[in-house]
Structures are given as C-alpha cells and as structure tokens.
Amino acid sequence: MATQCLLILAGCICTAMAIGAGSKPHFNSSSASSTPHSTIGGGSSPNTNPGKLDYHNDPLVVETQSGLVRGSARVVLGKEVHIFTGIPFAKPPVGPLRFRRPVPVEPWHGVLDATALPNSCYQERYEYFKGFEGEEMWNPNTNVSEDCLYLNIWVPQRVRLRHSGERPKVPILVWIYGGGYMSGTSTLDVYDADIVVATSDIIVASMQYRVGSFGFLYLKPFFGSDSEEAPGNMGMWDQALAIRWLKDNAAAFGGDPDLITLFGESAGGGSVSLHLMSPITKGLVRRGIMQSGTLNAPWSYMTGEKAADIGRVLVEDVGCNSTQLTEAPSKVMACLRSVDSKAISVKQWNSYWGILGFPSAPTIDGVFLPKHPMDLIKELDWEDTEILIGSNQDEGTYFILYDFMDYFEKDSPTFLQRDKYLDIVNLIFKNMTRLERDAIIFQYTDWEHLADGYKNQRMIADVVGDYFFICPTNVFAEQFAEHGTKVYYYYFTQRTSLNLWGQWMGVMHGDEIEYVFGHPLNMSIDYNENERDLSLRIMKIYSRFALTGKPIANEADWPTYTKDHPKYYILNSDTYGTGKGPRTTNCAFWNDFLPKLANHPDPDYACASGVAETANLGVNSATSCLLVGPKHLLYFVTIVLARLLLSL
C-alpha cells in the first residue's frame, strides 16, 4: 500500500482530506480496528530489549530522558537519514485515562525499538470513492487504537555526526497533521519527511494526537473547574506534551531546543496557531507555519456551551443517560469508559451539522483556550514571533464535492442551475439571518451570466473557500501583524501535472503538502522538472524560516504582510513574484462588511413587529414593508448594502 500510494502521490494530494473530509465519513463495520499496533507495545509499556553496554557506539541508538531508543537508517537521494518512529511520549489514554489529559510516559529500561510506525488514533475511514487513491491516501495506514500517543523523528546522519563532535545544533520542524480534529495520522506516506531532511540541515518530527470525542469531549460544566473528567482539548494537551518531550530531548538528536518551529495544515494549522497563543504552550516554540488553517476559522474552535451540548448528545447516543450528568456525573463517566471505541467513533458524527461543521474542535475552556482567539491575539506580546501563513487557490472545491454529492461529480464539472445554487447557499448558512444569506448571494452572483451553471458551481466553491479558509487566514495574518508579529504570506497556485481529481477542482485544499515534504524529488514518480524545482524551493523556504525567521534571503522579494500592504508570495512552478490579497474584495465582504448586518433584523420580521427602521432606509414605511416581502427581498438588501457602504 505504501508504495502504491506514493506512486500516485501527485494526484492524491489534491484531496483536501487533510482537514478531515468535508462531510461525515461513510461508515463500514470493518473500517476501524481496535487492535493495538504491536510494534510499540500496543499495551501499557513500550517494546524494549536489553541495551548493549556500549550503546554509545551504535549510531542508531539515542539516549533520551525517557530511555534508550534505536531507530533505522535509510539512504535518500544519496544521503543517509536516521528515522525513529513510534516513540511513546504519554501513557496509553485507555481505561481510566480515557477522556482525560495525557499523562507523561514513564521511563523505560533497555532499548526501545523505534523502527515501525505507531498506531493511528481511533477514527473512521472515508469511503465515498472506493478504490480511489485520492481518497484512500488520507485514511489511516496503521491500526487504529486509543493507544496512539507516539511521535516520530527524522534526522540527517550528517547532523548526528556533527552533534557527536559538539557542533552547532540545528532547527527542528514539528509537523501537526490535519483532519478537522476528527481524523488524521502522522503515519501517512505523504507525511514521510525523509526527503526533507535529506536535502536540508534540519530535523523533522511529528506526533499522534487524539481526534474526535476521544480528544475533545467537553463535559466540564457538569463536573466543575477542578475536575479532570472530560475537560475538553485533550488532543491539544497531547500535542503540547509531545512538543515538550521534543524540546526536552532535542539536544539528544542534535537539535536546538530553542529553534523549534511548528508547521501544520488545515486543523494542523489551527493547532499551530493555538500553540502560539495558549498560555499552556506559548514560549515552547519560536515560530509557526500555518497552511490553509487558522484557529479563528469557523470550523476551528467552538464555545464551551456548544461543546457541552455536543457532549450531552454523545452521552445520550451511546446509552449513558444524559439526565444523570447533573445528578450523578461520575456514573456517566464510568458508563462512557465502558462503551466500545467503535460505538463512540460512529455516534459522535450524529452532531455533524453540515459542511465543515465538525463536532470536535479546540474549545474555549478557560484554560488551554482561555477566550476567543481574536481576543487572545490582541492581548499578547508578539514582537519575538514570526509566522509563515498561506492559502491555496481553490480551497472550497473538495468540500462542496463531499457535502453535496447529489449536485457535483468528482471527475467533471457540473452545470448548476440557479435554483440549486440558491438552495446550497441557504443550506450552508442556514444559521444566518435571511438578510445575511441574501447578502452572500448578492456578493457571489455573476449578474451578467445568471444562467451560466458552470459559473454557479464556481461561485459555490468560492463561497466555501473564502468563508472557511482564505478570509479567516487573511484576517488572522492582519491581526498578528498589527500586534507586532512578522508575518509572511504565501499563495499556492500550482496544480500538479499528475492530479487524479477533476480539472474543475483546481488547486485544492491540501495540494501543497506533497511539495512541502519533497515528494516531487522522488525520481520514481513522473513529476516534471518545474515541479521538482518548486518543491525544492518550498523546502528551502521552510528550512530557512525555521533557522532565521525569514523565508528567503532578500526581504524585498517577499515583504511582510500587513492589512495596509497585504502582499503575498506566489508559490507556482511557472510564476514568481508577489501579489496583493488574496481575494481582497470577497474577504472585505466577509471580514468587514457582513458582520455589520448582524445587528439588522430580517425585513419580514421587522415589518411584522412594526419596528422597521424605514427612515434609515430612505423610504416611507408603507413602501418599505412592500419591498421587504419575499419577492422584493433582493431590492431591500441592495438598499441596506448601499446605506452601509456609505457609512464605511
């Protein structure tokens, strides 16, 4: 499977699955296994064997603060890479530790075998397109288990040799995978970092963290602030513990503990941004790279109230009697810990509420995420922080395919009738007011080509990509820059020549990952030379940023990003240079204009209750109540828009 997936890598990456499949997974009773991975001691203790007395002479043995580990060696592009996989950093979160924060692993005796991939954390598979590698490549490639808290490290041999001679240490890039906080695993072929470290003086590490309810169940309001039961954000605590382990053991692998840079895509990007802000992890790392995901995106965080409601639903759905949450919460937890992993994994999806409406996400818990992300940015000092952040050209196409399969096809574009377009927009934003929904439709309508169904399809993709990804990324970058951070923005516009997905899907969410990890340099895959050059350029950008905080040597070629000067750097094999934005006009609509409509009641309601502010609209009361009827709602919206624009 690994070889097969790697061979078709170029096309597979375009899936956008890195955020976790824009919809509920298609469940299969055999899709998830609870069998622990046997290599790293699928039980409560690591797999070790007695250490040699002269282990210092073994180049593949490293002495960590937890114990000795032995990795493996691989020659990549003519360079030797030392690889350590499946190193435990926490006790298995099973039994009484289920739904609790991670507990640091106990030191082991002997030499731990760190040569096989660890378990993936428990999750469901996506099987909408059976046999299609573009989808399959994002599914777990190791056994799924709740015993999954392990990390992986790739080190260039030359760094190990330098380290033994007390030479300067090197930066560490720590990868956090995406998956919508519902899925994902560090073991995927596409996250194999051997090519990165073979071509750079850099160490790469990655970790597993709990996803879905196992990592984010929030029942804190029912237990009190001092309780350890289901506090939410367990998956974030997993990441934090792994980062702490890597910092404490960086020097043992030849890395610099003060030069740790987090990088992640989608939910991984959201995680990176949270670690830069959280009082639990701020200061652990120096820099962050966020690919197509930030904490302020609508899918990337939730309030404690919402998370508690979702938790209550899960309790009831798995048969643990949610009414006891207020009367006997400890009995509820005992019940939850007796429920089969598979049942929890499936039932949690009952709270999926529509496109990118994942039932698990970082929660405003007062501890790890003390308050709204944008409020945190404004309160903290960011002068010693640098971030590299960016978006892909067609972030929305993958998600509309998965969530609206009755309308769209994987391999070819769809002629979307106007009424279907309106249905989809109203469904996506069903929780917004009617006025807000009509404003969105107004903004994303090509009024000169209303009957062009292909443009309607394009507009839906743009709505989703802008609202859920590009525009939150822009405002996040603006706010960081405003509060002292050096921000560098990229815009990825490369469609890989071997892409397996339909041409209409463009440069999808996740497409940049193969370039970040250097897979075009694998000569067994038929990339073209320009794509290989682009991948090499991106890897140099990342390694230089991790070392210096600057992505390229000449700052004039890649200026910092600010709200007044929103310059981005184009990542494309044929196009170089900078641009402005991206998506400046549409993001001004989402970030600056649409929020102003929140204080305006829906027009029908306003007339019915007799409180229409007709004077502010510039029309008399009789006319206004005629205008705001369903047939004239669009006219009403244009009047409101015009008045608001005049007030900007």
Automatic annotation (TrEMBL):
EC number(s) stated in the UniProt entry for this protein: 3.1.1.-
Region (Disordered): 25-56
Gene Ontology biological process terms, A to Z: acetylcholine catabolic process in synaptic cleft; choline metabolic process
Subcellular location: Synapse
Domain Carboxylesterase type B: 60-590
One MF annotation (Gene Ontology) recorded for this entry: acetylcholinesterase activity
Superkingdom of the source species: Eukaryota
UniProt-listed Gene3D superfamilies: alpha/beta hydrolase
Residue numbers annotated as active site: 266, 395, 509
Catalytic activity: acetylcholine + H2O = choline + acetate + H(+)
Gene Ontology CC: extracellular space; plasma membrane; synapse; synaptic cleft
The entry's keywords: Disulfide bond, Glycoprotein, Hydrolase, Neurotransmitter degradation, Serine esterase, Signal, Synapse
Cleavable signal peptide: 1-18
Pfam family, one: COesterase
Family: Belongs to the type-B carboxylesterase/lipase family.
Name this protein carries in UniProt: Carboxylic ester hydrolase
Biological source species: Blattella nipponica
UniProt gene name: ace2
